[in-house]
Amino acid sequence: MDRIPPQYDYYNTTDEPWLSDNMPITNESSSGSDELYSTFTTPVSPIEQSTSLNAIKLMDKLNEQCSKERNKCENYVLPSSSSMSFTDADSLHPLSAHSRFQLSDMPLELQPEKSLKKRSWFFLAWVTSLDFIIEPQSFCYVAWLSLVTMCYLYNCWVIPLRITFPYQTPENLWKWMLLDYCTDAINLLDTFVIKPRIMYLKDGFWVRDLKLIEVNYLEKLQSKLDIISLLPADLICLTPGFTSEMLPLMRLNRIIKIQTFWEFFDHFDSVLSSPYVVRVTRTLTYMVYLVHLNACAYYYVSVKEGLATNNWVFNGQGNAYIRCFFFATKTATSIGKNPHPENEAEYLFMTASWLMGVFVFAILIGQIRDIIATATRSQTEYRKLQDETLEYLRKLNIPPRIRQRVEQWFSFTWEQQRTLDENRILDSLPHKMKTDVAINVHMKTLNKVQLFKDCDKALLRELVLKLRPILYLPGDYICRKGEVGKEMYIVKTGQVQVVGGEHDDEVLATLTEGSVFGEISLLSLCGTNRRTADVRSHGFSNIFVLSKEDLNEAIKFYPNAQEILKRKARELIQQNAAREHRQIPNELLQDDPYGNSTENLMRVL
């Protein structure tokens, strides 16, 4: 008789006497300590015993797999695992032998109800196990919001249209229902999959825990409005006593999802480089939608009174929607020349339309004016300052040539910077953020200055805030020979020339983008604070200027940097003296393909 190996002996229970350990042992049992077998006392055929053993082994493998899956579930918590019974720890415990034999009595494919139930549970598990999180400012989320907003605008526009105008017929009802349920599917995904996975700020930190994100969304008013907007009230039309004409009326709750519309424009406003276009578009959307509602109401009143019954109602000719939309536009904007109402209902309608035009449209048009004024405020201030400056120069009888150069400076500065004082704009930022912006713009240029090459990074961060951009026109002199040097210059864009000779007609050197000159004058060593040559702009040049006062204010807290700067300044002075002793030709000063002009110009600046 076949025997049960000892590794399966732990399945014996008191509820199953045919697997009990207390059963008598036959003569075929072995008395060895290392191998103990117990036999069945009930007569069982060899085929049944073999089938039972195979089933037990199969269920053991299933138990091992369940244990592995349970460990995975313990290490990774699903967003809604608390409400899912099939992920509970108790449901993953090994089944008894009796239960396992009951499950194996019938194959799964012969149990259609259990199979369908398990598949539905696994589908819900897949949906709720999506563990991704979404950044609210990401491009993907803004793209998704645009899709949801299109669905919302479809409902807002089509529902009143189908209620009042005869555009929904029994022949095209399936097309409308297809569009309706496609938008419902998108809104369903947005409410139960996308919105519960959007990060939010709490105490200055982004919350990334799915449970907390889901709870935060459910506590908002937006979640309640989203759920109300998804209530399938249109299914009432399938019950007796309701007709398909009431389908649009039952879908009015879809318009409650207006929070998504506002959220889309808020995010789109922050993403685009021209936010004023978005703001004007949103305001125009409000205006057009109000006219749309007024057109629908006008057609509804006309149908109730009878088409073409008097001069005020719609006469039934041409495209009904276009004619009614035109009438509503004239009424809301108070253009006039509309037919006079002839009864109380028509008088009430015209009064409501005029009030909407006077108050609502006045507010919306005022918003558009404010948006455009804000968008052009900087340009308006620039033109005002330019006109005042030129008018003042004319009163002083300044020569036209100088006035023309001033006007040219205004125009080029506006084209390059779109502002006349960029420091005023940056001053509105926090100091740390202002430093980050300045580092991103100026640090690469400041690193090219050999005088500051080995200085502390903290000092360089202080110096980038001290740089002032100045625009020079063609022919403008940046510094003159014999002047006391109080500033250092860094060429950002354009070209400057070091000139000499009696009439400044000899070009000693040409400095291009990234070139630096005048840095020795900042330290006033050995009487070297006098300019020894003229420097003028060859074209339109944008120069960064660092003054001696700003440098002293920055380095007074860095004593090591002071020693480094003085040592480097002495080294550069010695190099310049050596060049003068060797009498290097001037032509060598003009050929500097790498723009490292500091050492070449020390003997002339």
Q: How widely separated are the two ends?
A: 112 Å
Q: Could you say which overall geometry the principal axes of the C-alpha atoms support?
A: flat
Q: What's the CATH topology label of the largest domain? A: Jelly Rolls
What is the highest CATH level, the class of the largest domain? Mainly Beta
Q: Quick check: average pLDDT?
A: 74
Helix content: 40-55%
Largest sheet: 4 strands, antiparallel
Total strands: the figure is 10
Which runs of at least 5 residues are low in confidence (pLDDT < 50)? 1-42, 74-117, 583-605
Beta-strand residue fraction: 5-15%
Output the number of helix runs: 21
Describe the 3D structure:
One of its GO terms (cellular component) is plasma membrane. Residues 451-555 form the Cyclic nucleotide-binding domain. It is a multi-pass membrane protein. Pfam families: cNMP_binding, Ion_trans. GO terms for molecular function: cGMP binding; intracellularly cAMP-activated cation channel activity; intracellularly cGMP-activated cation channel activity; protein-containing complex binding. By secondary structure, the protein is α+β, with helices and mostly antiparallel strands. It folds into four domains: 6-108, no CATH class; 132-271, no CATH class; 378-417; 449-601, Sandwich (Jelly Rolls), CATH 2.60.120. Helix content is 53%, strand content 7%. It is built from 21 helices and ten strands. The protein has helices at residues 46-75, 97-103, 112-128, 139-164, 173-194, 210-219, 221-229, 247-250, 258-271, 275-305, 320-332, 344-375, 377-395, 400-417, 422-426, 431-446, 457-464, 548-555, 559-582, 586-590, 598-601, and strands at residues 200-202, 205-207, 468-472, 477-479, 487-493, 496-500, 506-511, 516-517, 534-537, 541-547. Strands 3-10-5-8 form a four-stranded antiparallel sheet. Helix 4 runs antiparallel to helix 5 (173-194). The longest helix is centred in the middle third of the chain and has 32 residues, at 344-375. The chain is flat, with a radius of gyration of 42 Å. Residues 1-42, 74-117 and 583-605 have low confidence and may be disordered.
